[in-house]
Amino acid sequence: MSALIIFGVLLLIAAMVVVYVIMIYNALVRLKNETEKAWSNIDVLLKQRFDELPKLIKVCEGYMQHERETLEAVIKARNMVQQASGEKESLQAQNFLSDTLKSLFAVTERYPDLKADSIFANLSNRISELEEQIADRREMYNEYINLYNIRIAQFPDVLIARKFNFAPKTLWEIDPEHRADVEVSFNRS
Predict the structure, then answer these.
(1) Which of these, 135, 134, 136, 143, lies nearest to 171 by C-alpha position?
(2) 102 exposed, middle or buried (CB, 10 Å; 0-12, 13-18, 19+)?
(3) pTM above 0.85?
(4) N or C: which end of the chain has fewer CB within 10 A?
């Protein structure tokens, strides 16, 4: 009888360990999926911004003959976003694009006719709204990434994470070279 009780207790302990492992695994899967969902939400906004840029550039070209470098930088940044492969390269390209947009909007201050153009005003407002939404969603994305990275590094979760190949993810941070203020020059070529 006592051997049966011991066997029952061992079976109960084994079942509890299995349930605990399943709970940890499911929590990690949920966090991983939340990070992917957060990135997907950002990606929608990035795609919208990406699609609006050619329209904005076209409107600006007519007014800004002397600002070819700025327009070309925006086009280059847009192409970098399109060609980026991998999470880190994509985040760097998005940071560069945000910087070039800041430069473009700073340069437009020199062109009152452009600022008064209703199409430009609508496009720049739309892109500014998208930038704000991207910033908000980036914060949420980084929060999920942080929670995920903490979970896969904590004991005993780290054991399950390693067993099932849960790898750390990269936060979307602004590169130090992109943190400087936008330089605006009022000298025309």
Answers:
(1) 143
(2) middle
(3) no
(4) N
Reduce the DSSP state of residue 54 to 3 states and report it.
Answer: helix
Q: How far is CA 43 from CA 16, 46, 121, in A?
A: 40, 5, 24
Going along the chain, which residue ranges are E strands?
Answer: none
The alpha carbons of the chain give a radius of gyration, in whole angstroms, of 25
Q: How far apart are CA 75 and CA 52, in angstroms?
A: 12
| Residue 178, number of CB atoms within 10 A of its CB | 13
Contact (Cβ atoms closer than 8 angstroms) between residue 77 and residue 157: no
pLDDT string in tens for the chain (189-residue length): 688 889 888 999 999 999 999 999 999 999 999 999 998 888 888 888 888 888 887 777 766 665 677 778 888 888 888 888 877 788 888 888 888 888 777 777 777 777 677 777 788 888 888 888 988 898 999 999 999 999 999 999 999 999 999 999 988 876 655 444 444 343 444
CA dist., res. 63 & res. 52, Å (int):
18
